[in-house]
Amino acid sequence: MEQQPESVFTAGLSARVELTVSDSDTAQAVGSGDVPVLGTPRALALAEAATVAATASRMPPGMTTVGLRVELDHRAPTPIGRTVVAQARLAKVDGRRLLFEVTVTDGDTTVAEGRVERVLVDRHRFVERATQSS
Q1: Exposure class string for 63-95: b at 16+ Cβ within 10 A, else e
Q2: Which of 39, 70, 83, 132 could connect to 30 by a Cys-Cys bridge, CB 3.0–4.6 Å?
Q3: What is the structure's pLDDT at 5?
Q4: Domain 5-132 carries which CATH code?
Q5: Which backbone phi and psi does 93 adopt, to 5 degrees?
Q6: What are the residues facing 89 on neighbouring strands?
Q7: Where are the chain's structural domains?
Q8: Are strands 109-122 and 63-74 parallel, antiparallel or unpaired?
Q9: pTM
Q10: Average pLDDT for residues 119-127, to the nearest whole number?
Q11: What SS3 string covers the chain?
């Protein structure tokens, strides 16, 4: 019998990931601006990596999560050489939907914060559908 997400994932699961900002992480490099600071897409990718890490140890075999919705406020610039920490906390489980609260910080400074919603899917079926529709 397949486990329901509610029994596998519980509110409060969390994880953190770190990144030392390099030239390839800047707005200039990722095409989201022309300044040499952490680009918003890179901050978001780091926050999403934290959400994936938060569920990794409890992920049922053959399943994965995919991004569904993102809300992110990028509040402060981070120059090259600084280390940012993304933290994700699972705030709510609604069926197969997982809602995370995320923050990206540089020391005591909140660089970005928001919410990431992911949905639990069968990995094989998801990839199969994605490749058939192209």
Answers
A1: bbbeeeeeebebeeebeeebebbbbbbbbebee
A2: 39
A3: 58
A4: 3.10.129.10
A5: -115, 120
A6: 14, 101
A7: 5-132
A8: antiparallel
A9: 0.92
A10: 96
A11: CCCCHHHHCCCCCEEEEEEECCHHHEHHHHCCCCCCEECHHHHHHHHHHHHHHHHHCCCCCCEEEEEEEEEEEECCCCECCCEEEEEEEEEEEECCEEEEEEEEEECCEEEEEEEEEEEEEEHHHHHHHHHHCC
Residues with Cβ within 8 Å of residue 81, at least 6 apart in sequence = 20, 21
Q: How far is Cα of residue 67 from the mean position of the Cα atoms in its chain?
A: 8
Q: Cβ contacts of residue 131 below 8 Å, gap of 6+?
A: none
54-106 residue pLDDT tens: 999 999 999 999 999 999 999 999 999 999 999 999 999 999 999 999 999 99
By the 8 A CB rule, do 12 and 77 touch? no
